[in-house]
Model the fold of this input.
Amino acid sequence: MTTTPQQLVSLMPFAEALGVRVTDATAQEVRAHLDWAPERCTAGGVLHGEALMALADSAGAICAFLNLPAGAGTATTSSTTNFFRALRDGTLHAVSRPLHVGRTSITVQTELLDDSGRRIGHTTQTQAVLTG
Done:
């Protein structure tokens, strides 16, 4: 059975409830999107930092998952996000790519961009490879 990119989101109920959309998902690159909405904002209509981090974490988790060996699972062991500018409208776009795929860990880098391609933030996360 072939799994579509969006079906991968359905494995993460929080990401699905938040409205994360995945349009492309390969072991080399995952592209995910989250629309600006007032209920996802802080004061002043700025998309909440946790919404940015949730999109980055979701896209990064899918990227790590697609790089796992057969039968393995994964869990985030560290995640660092840098914020560069606010998002006040449009769509937040995430592009996740593996930096390191090893036997015991996978490190993924996620760029967060606005509709114009300007960098909103950057996340680097490491996932443990769980076998057993």
The mean pLDDT is 96. The beta strands are 21-25, 30-35, 73-83, 91-101, 105-113, 119-130.
